[in-house]
Amino acid sequence: MQQVSPRTDAQWKAIFYDSVQPRALHLQNVKVGMLRKSKAQQEKAEKKVLPDRLSREWFDEEAMTLETRAYLLDKLLPTLVPGVEKLLKVAERKKVLEVETEEMEEQPSNFDPINFLGEYLMRYNPSYAISALPDPYVAGIKAVTEELKAKVPETTPNKLAQLKELVKEKRKQREQVEEIKNRVKAMRKKALAVQFREWTLDTSLQIPLAMAQSALKSFLDMHTLPTDTREGLYARSLETIETLEVKLNEEEFAEYVFTYIKNLTSDMFQELLKHLFQCANDAREIIRHDMCRKTFLQLFLDCDCGKVGLLDRRRVLTLLESFYNNYSDLAKKGFRNPRQWPVVELDDIDLIEFWGDMEDDEQTASERNSFLLKHSLLGLSEEAIVLNQILKDILSEDTLAVPDTGDTTEAVEGEKEQDPTAVPGTSAVIEASFIEVMKVGLEIWGDNGNVSPEGPAATSESEAAVMLEWASKENDLSSDRQTSSEEPDIAAKTSTAEPASSLGEETTVTDKDIGAEVGHEHPDESTEDQPTEDTGEPLAEAITEGQVSGLSPEPSGEASKTFEKAPQLIYGQPWSGDLEAANLTFDYTDYGKEVREDWNNENSRFPGLRMNMIDIQCHGPPSSASAFEKNCLNLPQFVQLMETFIGEDVSLPDLKKLVKFMKQGYVLLEKEKLSQMERVRHDALLARQQLLLAALFEKWDNECSGFLDMKEVDAVLSTFKEGMEQEALEKAKLQLPIPQWHPSGVVKLSQKDFQTYIDLVISEFTGNEDEVLDNIVEFLMTSVEKTHMERLRGSARRKWLHTIQHTAKTNGGNIDLVYQAIFKVLCQDADAHGDSKKISAYIALLEYNMLFPERGDILLHYVACTEDDAPYVLNQSLYMDMKGVSFAAALDDKPIHVPRVQLHGNIHFWNCDRPKQERKGSFLVLPIEDIRRRVFGILGLDTLRDRNDQTIFVPHEIRFYQGIAKAFSAAYHLIRTQDSIKQMTLTAVEWLSTRAPSLHAITAYFMEPGKDRMYDYTLRKVMTTNQKGHMEPFPHPAPVLSRNDTLFSDYLFKCIDCAQVVTVCVYEDHHIAVPLRDPAGYAMVVFDISLGRRQKLPSCEHKDLQKMLKMMQAAACEILKEDLGNLEPYYVLEAEYVGDWRRGGVLFYRFMLQDLQNCIWNLDPQHSFDELRSREKPLTLVHKILKCVLLILYPQWAGTEEVENWKCCTEKLDGELIENICYFDPTAAYVQIRSEVLYRCLHGIRRIDVWKLGSAPVEYLYNWTLTCLSLIELAKKLQCSQTRASHSSGLLVHSPIQSRQTFEVSEGINQTISST
């Protein structure tokens, strides 16, 4: 037979299966149907014949006869018993059983019972499948047989019965578990339904789905769980909701949340309920602030008469200060002082006031609450009982007033700890509400003459605690009483109450009484509806009554009716269900901007630049971010400033007064309006000019090298107007701030230099500058013609370079990902535009040669390479005495191309295993320059692994590889800058941790842009404080936070958007979001400073926090300006010459030292120290500080009379001492100070004691002493690190492609040529 081909065989099998398989399935289904039908008929027949109960007499579990009885019942009796029964019937019919008579004896019967029985047994033998007729007794025997078989051990029926029993038991257990789960599910859903009523609902009694989703996500962030536990905590993965249009009612909310938390333990579920309670309060605050922001939005539009999108910041601050000064002391307690931070910037505060002002700010919230508690519990032993009868209805409802953040909370802290199931903050809030209402009641009674507001003596702390406990018990008892037994007027008030359980709401009827009592006038209060409190069931009771699952009982029908009828009002208005002012940065991005878009159309004057301009705009800064300016405010910044000013507890009448005052007070003259409009127009023209020149540069630099040859630009410009403007070109060239000579012979113009050059040329030409610009751009645009293929190649390469840049900005500081992106782009370009070359690539950095100085001062350390070359190249070092052209390229700062390496003779081959005949190909070395055009490494490429004939790099490839080298340089220095900022942050937080113990936590987020400006940015959490208060970086990859992840972290994005300080209360903790700005004013880092339950730090710690933030901003700007090339490195201290990322920590202390030196320099040596000189007996604290100052300047005086005697110390307080302090460098090599001596002198001096002393000179000297001591210690660490680094060549970087273990030879980082 001829063999069938595989294709034909496969086709035949497919046809066969298609035809045969349906028939086989049909026959199988028929057979199964017949079996099922037969079984059904058998079951039907068995149901007709009921078992006889007499057959149960055979059932006996006696072990001796069990097996025999089972055998007989199975094999014999089912046939024998019907046979005997048949035999008896036949015998009776034939009268065989009757008593024999004479007649019967004469005629004997021929009926033989034995034969009959034998015939019956043979006829109905079960072996031949001939069953007897159905019989009830036999059916009973069969049932008994089955039971007995199950009792016979070690038999199949017995094992089967055991399995069935086990299955039955398991099924029963599953049913019980399922029943418990259903019961728990129902109880949890009821608890969630009760919790739903804590949220602020819109007019349709719903909440946005995004709020529920945000609460669930934030619950994971609030609990520090392992990664594996965190991912499996919820039953399904969380989703991101980007809109507030999707809503949930009570039933949908309970069902939606339950689908996530159904697997939570009881304790975890209770924690979730507490967290949802906090989120409900925070959501209400978000809604309230959104209404305020909407009011401020309209205020901005009303004040911006010229629609320029800007307001005068100085004038706004002046109006706020005037409004604040004209308000009474008690009325302005909700506002922040506009002369202090965070309303004003730290740079706006005078230096002397910043460091020498030791006056306490206004009382913090905790101190005010402590004062009120102390004075409101006077003489309440009798009156409290009477007031409780009036106020018990308010306390019985789910009413949560402003949270007590101070001593009141601390007074009941012990009660909180005794009740582990209580919601954190709930009992304290209720108790604080009770105290506040009791205080108001006392004041009202005092006016009526019943009770004097001032009692004879203050009650003790134990009496206060007993009263709080009594109030809590009365609250629980009153919640069970019916409203019908209460007074009519109180019932009428509570029936129209608002279900407001959020924190910080001052809108009850009692608040109006407070305002009237203290004399706070609100003329329009009587005509406006004030929101009232909630009458819903308290969530705290719902949580504490849970048993197995931490659940609450179902609310009563009466409470539900009250909840449905009660309106939910914020500032007297129902919530619409949307946060209309939440995205001002997106909604008003282009408001007031006069940007000419004449280029963005097909018929524009610059059609050849249109696509380049669109691409440049897309890769610009995020559209939602705004740059901070000292003199003006745009719309989002104005709204945020006003929101910061009003604080968290402003009332509606106060808000209206503020808006009215600002609207009437902000008036601009016509001259000022014209000035603003002219400025906006100038900014628009400048932006258009920069966009045009950037697009023109990209058109000329089609191969993306990153620079232009100045000779080529001059050659084209010299033909403009047929050479008539040659003199203007020469003048512009002389003003160009770049060297006119380069070692490579090519004067490179970067994009910034090109724009500067064209600006200088335009300024030298006569005529209108805008028209001259358009003419030059049009002329240069038409002077360069590229083919369609060249434009496509340039577009692709520019896109790949953007990928490298984006990777550097969004990788969290991981240089390995940058290496990977570079090698990937090189391979892509070689495949697409390099004739599919097979290339090898590697990057080497210049380092000082510390190990073998006889082989040269510097070496090239190969830190990354492609995967195939990793075994031979990675972590290798090329010395100056070795073969190679890499040093020539680095030292001469020019690319070197070796077309045929086999003919060169001075090439070092790392792969010694490759035969000499295979060492063929092309070799290219490109220098890597920093922003100041100093070489710090090389990028090498070769084609030795390519076996094709055409392996030479062509010019357009070389120019693109130069662009890659420049992109790597930018990425490398960006990561170095981030490392410097991290080091500066570590140093700053370490300094603050010893001065501000009340600070709860500090978290640093780095802003990472999206793919283009239309994509929103993200925040990467890079550092946070540990339990000891020290900053620790997050391991890679650090978590990333996006704007849509949770609504409760939106304040971090507002801080980045406006580049301003944002204060907020989230999860009952007070937070301050502080931006770290770049020199252009854009926020690049945000610090989330958590104050815990404190509303404000103590004055001393608050001032130190401001000092830290100011020094960090100054140090960050210095670092960024140097890295951007806008500022030459300026070293003040010797420790700054370290030249790497550790300089960030030195800069922090350097700016602090300079500020203190300026303050000390302004002291009058004759009068500033008079108070200290006049003391006969010195203060120990002051003497120790002066002793430390003198020991720092004169360490040889240790133990002498010069520092031990007080009069000798005071005699040194003169102009010479001030001058020595101002010129002292604690990090200089000549400084020989023993730190332990200074520490012994400072031992026992507390920061708060120096603050309370109130002496500015002592404050300056104390801070100067600590700063010098910190710099001395830091200099020693750097010197020790450099000493250890002298025995090695630095840090070896592992390959980004082939994962290898990274190891450190020293603690220092690579010391490159660029750091010298």
**Mean pLDDT over the full residue set:** 77
Spans of at least 5 consecutive residues whose pLDDT stays below 50 are: 362-565, 1284-1316
- Report the portion of residues in β strands: 5-15%
Oligomer: single chain
Helix content: 40-55%
The rough form would be described as extended
Question: Count the strands?
Answer: 21
Reported for the largest beta sheet, the result is:
7 strands, antiparallel
Organism: Gekko japonicus (Schlegel's Japanese gecko)
Protein name: EF-hand calcium-binding domain-containing protein 5
Biased composition (Acidic residues): 526-536
Coiled coil: 160-190
Task: Tell me what you see in this structure.
Helices cover 52% and strands 8% of the residues. By secondary structure, the protein is α+β, with helices and mostly antiparallel strands. Strands 15, 16, 17, 18, 19, 20 and 21 form a seven-stranded antiparallel sheet that branches. The chain has a six-stranded antiparallel sheet with strand order 11-10-9-14-13-12, sandwiched between helices. α28 (670-700) crosses α31. The radius of gyration is 44 Å and the shape is extended. Mean pLDDT is 77; it is low at 362-565 and 1284-1316. Residues 405-425, 474-510, 517-536 are annotated as: Disordered. Residues 526-536 have a biased composition (Acidic residues).
